[in-house]
């Protein structure tokens, strides 16, 4: 069992290392990896759009403005306090805010009035089916992922899957600014940019202002340790994946224990490979009794064996050897020295100490010898 757990942990570490290497620079506009976004940043630069990477919520808030598009690469990593402060900074900035795949933990704060559906889209490539100019010009794109719902009457809902959009454009209540909620980040990946209408949609969504601020939330952000995180307990800080993994391991361990502990049938006696002397068996069992301080079991075994051996000698059936009302009268009639206190000797309580146990054994031996010689 221990070896299996070690192998499982080693496999998990190897898989994590491989996946972390494959995801290096994910959605980073400076990364040329397949999951990086350097290609779209260079295309935007050719069109005069500058791209600046920030990693703290303070930098992201201060960068919001009417000539800026703020891209939030991982909204769900932000704490509630970070989300609220970022929303306050972008709400009246008159710029554009693009949220990449925000889930339930963040979408209602960063895009009020929007909820994330629990079931993602089954299709990756979807057609626009809306009046948003950027979506109409781009055509089909790989935006299938999280789906959203909103009651905002002026929202543009595009790329529908089963009636729910994967792209929402929410105009600001006052001014020309807007918030774009995108259900999947695939259109920004280097290896997906040249497919479908991904490049067109990405350039239109991110290139509407001369400046693009690319916010990559970082665990080293000081703001993440302030405010509401101070009230979070240990389990709140553990990712859900680790909790589910631990639960699965616990269930697997319990099933393995039940499997190994099952009884297939009654015990089968097996002949010993060598002959063991009776005295060795008696000594071994006596040591076990002594180690367990089981004077009650030892006394019960001595009395039961004595009753079993003397019953046939006094004419009592073996089935009645342990019945006091049958054994004691027959035994009293057989003994030459009447007046012995037989009930506590043969059916009495356990001895209080080892000395009393030895005395009991001697008395039982003397009783058996007297019965045999009488």
Model description:
By secondary structure, the chain is an alpha/beta fold. The chain has helices at residues 2-22, 38-46, 57-63, 80-91, 104-110, 133-138, 198-206, 240-261, 278-291, 295-310, 324-334, 342-347, 354-373, and strands at residues 50-54, 68-72, 96-100, 114-116, 125-126, 141-142, 148-150, 156-161, 164-171, 178-182, 211-215. Helix 4 packs parallel to helix 5. The longest helix has 22 residues, at 240-261. The protein is rod-shaped, with a radius of gyration of 41 Å.
- N-to-C series of helices and strands: HHEHEHEHEEHEEEEEHEHHHHHH
CA gyration radius, whole angstroms: 41 Å
The geometry reads as rod-shaped
The helix count comes to 13
Class by alpha and beta content: alpha/beta
Strand order of the largest sheet: 1-11-2-3-10-9-8
- Kindly estimate the percentage of residues that lie in beta strands according to DSSP: 5-15%
What fraction, in percent, of the residue positions are helical?
Answer: 40-55%
User: Please, what is the oligomeric state?
Assistant: single chain
User: Regions with pLDDT < 50 over 5+ consecutive residues?
Assistant: none
Terminal-residue CA separation: 62 Å
Largest sheet: 7 strands, mixed
Number of strands: 11
Residue-averaged pLDDT, rounded? 86
